[in-house]
Structure formats: C-alpha cells, structure tokens
C-alpha cells in the first residue's frame, strides 16, 4: 500500500527493503493488474538487470502507470484492482536434437 500511495500521490518510487533472500535473485517476472476480472495493465521483464524484490516494485508501478493501452490507475482504483506477480523459474538448457524441436 505504501508503494501505491507514493506513486499516485507523490509520484515517488518505493525501495524494496527487508525482503526474503530470494528477492536478491535476478528472475524473469510478470506483474499483471486486473480490475473486476478484466486486464488493466501488465509489465514484464525477461533477462532482468535488477534484483527480484526491486523489479516487482518497479514493474507493479509500471503496470499501473506505464502500460500504453490503459490510462494510469487512479487513487480510487487502488482499492479495487488485483495485482498478480508471476516469477518464472530459472531457465534450463534444452538438450533435445534440433529435429525434435521443430
């Protein structure tokens, strides 16, 4: 809630502090916003450059205000939107022969 209020009222970004150790890993991440079951915004990163904890904060804000398909989320909407965070597992090498992949 602190990050949401900071964004809508003060236009500031919140730092991700005091999170579990996994938050320091670099992971592919999606943040999706729905309002009454309908897509309201989404942001993702593949091959991330920042730690997971900060990436989730940044992409949540970007999903609220940076998805060009939608207007920015209003302070009224903050009470009704649902935010989903998807963290992908680490990539693994695929050792299948090329012919079997096609």
Describe this structure in words.
The chain is of the alpha+beta class and 102 residues long. The chain has a single domain (2-89), classed as Glycoprotein, Type 4 Pilin (2-Layer Sandwich). Helices cover 26% and strands 22% of the residues. It is built from 3 helices and 3 strands, in the order H-E-E-H-E-H. The protein has a 3-stranded antiparallel beta sheet with strand order 2-1-3, covered by helices on one side. The longest helix has 14 residues, at 52-65. It is globular. The model has no long low-confidence stretch (mean pLDDT 82).
Helix fraction bin: 25-40%
Tell the overall outline: globular
**How many domains make up the coordinates?**
1
The overall pLDDT, averaged over residues, is 82
The termini sit apart by: 46 Å
- Across the major sheet, the strand order is 2-1-3
Strand fraction band? 15-25%
Q: So, the CATH homologous superfamily?
A: Hypothetical protein ph0010, domain 1
- Which segments are poorly predicted (pLDDT under 50) over 5 or more consecutive residues? none
Q: How many alpha or pi helices?
A: 3
Radius of gyration: 16 Å
Q: Please write the string of helix (H) and strand (E) elements.
A: HEEHEH
Structural class by secondary-structure content: alpha+beta
CATH architecture: 2-Layer Sandwich
Instruction: Assign the CATH topology.
Output: Glycoprotein, Type 4 Pilin
> How many extended strands?
3
The CATH class is Alpha Beta
